[in-house]
Amino acid sequence: MSNKYFGTDGIRGQANGPVLRPDVLVRIGQAAGQVVGDATHNGKKTVVIGKDTRLSGYMIESALEAGFTSVGFNVLLVGPLPTPAVALLTRSLRADLGVMITASHNPYSDNGIKLFTPDGVKLNGGYVERMEALIDAPEQIELASPDHVGRAMRVDDAVGRYMEYIKGTVPRDFSLAGMKLVVDGANGAAYKIAPRILWELGAQVYKLGAEPDGFNINKNVGATAPEALAKAVLQHGADMGIALDGDADRLILVDETGTVMDGDFIIAAMAQHFHAHRKLTGGGVVATVMSNMGLQRFVEGMGLALVRTPVGDHHVEKAMREGGYNVGGEQSGHLIFRDYATTGDGLLAAMQVLSFLREKDLKASHLANLYKPWPQQLENIRLPDGSDAAAVLESAPVQGRIEAAEATLGEAGRVLVRKSGTEPLIRVMVEAEDAALMQRELGGIAEVVRAAV
Fold first, then answer.
1. Each residue of 117-143: pLDDT tens digit?
2. Would residue 387 show up in a list of annotated catalytic residues for this protein?
3. Which of 71, 245, 277, 388 has a CB 3.0–4.6 Å from the CB of 105, allowing a cystine?
4. In 10 A of CB 83, how many CB atoms?
5. Could you say which of 104, 291, 387, 420 is catalytic?
């Protein structure tokens, strides 16, 4: 598959940059419409378009709307909503395609496009290859005749539909009465929805990252910057802190002591909970190569399997679907519960954790004490413009240093060096039972990678 437009998670780049500018965006909408339209048997071709709170969302939404309607698609605009809500509404509204305008955890200056099939699964494979070809061949775009140009309309009850869906994933009598929760919406797509749902369920809610201005999405708040949430939890004496990212498909938690808990701890807790209730399917859970060895040891200690995939929640979802697993996710906080959803959903995951804690009358710190993580550190090395990441990674000095580190660590550690699929970075991760050894090998590999870059 060509990487000119699509990366590992849709299209992503700088707003008004080489790709995310109006003329190209119109062609992207046209290409997506034509490819998907050719495969649909639905006479009323429809696309659902949602977005997060970035300023550039207005521009991208309008350009895509023009592209889709020009090839005969009706466009349903749902406004600012979490990515998983768009996946849900694509299914619920019987649409042929779902589009989420977001760059997830990136800063406001970036934006992107995530595409969903009618089943709410991220679009990949052959569809994407055909879209790539059409975007660069506008003469092959088949425009609709004047009487078949599509319409665009707002879906006024989109927020309510999603809120009811989220509340429907916990028992009817479930209540958060008596709980103090701090909710960090990352100034993003769930800044209104997340606090509202928890308040409706009875919690006393303190808001953080709930004042988007188009520029402050993910800025020092949210799942990628949980320090502010940890401070707020202690300040308010809260029972737990909930951090989402810009498009609310990630969840990071903070317990009552201010300890930050990543996706691995949530996977561990829900694996234990589902297994105890005989609700866990597939005989284990799915995680990625980034998940901590401490999690793997914990899961295997229950007689379950931990299946690892490449980084990316679409890889996790595919492995879950093919293997019959219903719990999986990433250390970064993408959590998938296939009994309820087809993609990562931060709010849904928070509901599952809260339901578990309330049922067992446990404090949030129970999750942080499930296992002891192996020391693990990730270092990001930025690539200069024009750099060939593959050449850097395959160079003899880099490969030699990686092999040396793996030999030194043996069974007591892991090395993972890869190119980011969403940013111009090479990511170096080292994990080991011995923290000093981990730091030494990480520094050695990073030094060689920087020299190669």
1. 999 998 876 788 899 999 999 999 999
2. no
3. 245
4. 33
5. 104
